[in-house]
Design goal:
The chain is built from 14 helices and no strands. By secondary structure, it is mostly helical. Among the domains are: 140 residues; 153 residues, no CATH class. Helix 7 packs parallel to helix 9 and helix 10 packs antiparallel against helix 11.
């Protein structure tokens, strides 16, 4: 990947996403949202959307703007849309959070702010989809990982559409029995599309390529991988087909949800098998921290379905869904994101700073930009805190939960400091840093600024 093909706004997406993650963790430590309040309370909705949109979706969009061109071996189309999309998403998220805060009587704003935020978010995400969609359209036929991304983006459209429908109903701008029934019974569909489709399927597609690239493993294009995609897409189709059942509040909704969950579990099981194959077939025998730390995320991915089945069989799903969601969001999705960021930030920083100097002077390795021995314990602390946090939520110990989230917050801050040091090349010698000039924290510096 030549330095000129770097997405200039990806680091900005990452920075905004990390701020949202830290903000969400601070709120949880303060006792804001579930389990201190009801799971359907506006405070919980504010916290959930700050995490899923502000942290995970912003991060995913930033990563895709950089790595979709890698997946399809084509430059990003219409890159000038990237900052526009970022601004729209941040403005829409702010309006959405204000709408939830108004529902919680924390602030006073017009009720129309909630659906207005949803509209702005839809335009922002649509702008990202247009840029990425055009890039992949120009690269047909698509590689298998890119097809996962297409499925994820389709899920994003469905997630945003359902979310805006909910916002209109909550604001009193959309009435009727069907809309109220969809609001009451459609939340699991919204969650499956967002967490299962948009975030997990997209993460699967990107991780297939990233694991192969960073571990020097062969690209996986096998029958089991195609089954993962098929099961994931089938889950999305079932969720879409279940929407009329949610609107009519019929018994068929439970059956459709069960089918969708079974398809999702099959996809997760097959994906886990593929990941094990990648680890075994890697040519880089020494596992780097980004791959080693990701094992914690895969551990959460294994535990979450087991917990789900246990809650279903015991009839405790309604009381345990908060712990299950917390483990899935912060253990699997956030854990994978933080572990991969450790490598991605170093990789992108090396590309823009040292790739143009290859053959002209000695350059450090990508691994020289990170400090693995000091970063590794913080990933361990993060996963331990998430695991104990989920357990305390299950057994209804809210004070202990806040304490463990405090450890999670501290670990997140420490990991973020390592990202900061990597980005500013602080793990290199002063001589190496001086030879390339000042490194910008959020934006790639112009190749023209690098002194040959």
């Amino acid at each position: 990947m030549p330095g000129a093909s770097l997405s200039r706004w990806t680091m900005t997406y990452f920075a905004a996403a990390l701020l949202c993650l830290i903000g969400a963790e601070v709120l949880m430590v303060a006792g804001f949202g579930y389990p201190a309040t009801a799971i359907e309370a506006p405070e919980t909705l504010l916290l959930v959307h700050l995490t899923t949109i502000g942290w995970l979706s912003l991060l995913m969009c930033g990563a895709l703007l950089q790595f979709v061109p890698v997946l399809v071996a084509r430059p990003l189309q219409w890159p000038l849309l990237s900052p526009i999309a970022l601004l729209l998403i941040l403005v829409g998220l702010g309006a959405l959070l204000c709408g939830f805060a108004n529902m919680a009587e924390i602030i006073t704003v017009p009720t129309e702010v909630l659906p207005l935020g949803g509209v702005v978010l839809a335009v922002g995400f649509g702008t990202v989809i247009v840029s990425l969609g055009r890039t992949m359209w120009m690269a047909r036929p698509l590689t298998l990982p890119a097809k996962f991304v297409v499925a994820g983006l389709a899920s994003l459209i469905g997630t945003v559409t359902l979310g805006e429908t909910f916002a209109l109903t909550l604001a009193g701008l959309l009435g009727g029995e069907e809309a109220l029934s969809l609001l009451t019974h459609g939340v699991p569909l919204h969650a499956l599309l967002g967490l299962g489709g948009w975030m997990t399927l997209t993460a699967m597609g990107a991780s297939y390529r990233l694991f192969a690239m960073f571990m020097l493993a062969p690209d996986i294009d096998r029958f089991s991988t195609r089954l993962v995609l098929f099961a994931g897409v089938f889950m999305l189709v079932v969720v879409a087909a279940a929407t009329p059942f949610a609107m009519a509040a019929t018994m068929g909704l439970s059956v459709m949800l069960l089918i969708a969950l079974l398809a999702g579990l099959c996809a997760l099981a097959l994906y886990g098998r593929d990941v094990v194959t990648l680890y075994r077939q890697r040519k880089r025998r020494k596992i780097e921290l980004n791959a080693y730390a990701a094992l914690g995320a895969f551990g959460a991915l294994v535990i979450a379905p087991i917990l789900l089945v246990g809650l279903l069989l015991s009839g405790q799903l309604s009381t345990g869904v908060g712990a299950l969601t917390y483990l899935f969001v912060f253990g699997w999705l956030s854990g994978l994101a933080l572990s991969k960021l450790h490598k991605i930030i170093a990789f992108m920083t090396w590309l823009e700073s040292f790739a143009p100097l290859l053959g002209k002077r000695p350059t450090p390795r990508v691994q020289d930009l990170v400090d693995e021995p000091h970063a590794a314990p913080w990933f361990g602390a993060y996963y331990a805190a998430v695991g104990f946090g989920a357990l305390t939520m299950l057994v209804d110990l809210p004070i202990a939960f806040r304490l463990f989230v405090g450890v999670q917050l501290f670990a997140t801050l420490a990991i973020t400091v390592h990202f900061y040091r990597t980005r500013l090349l602080l793990n290199l010698s002063a001589e190496s840093r001086a030879s390339i000039g000042t490194q910008h924290l959020f934006f790639p510096q112009s190749i023209a600024r690098i002194r040959p």
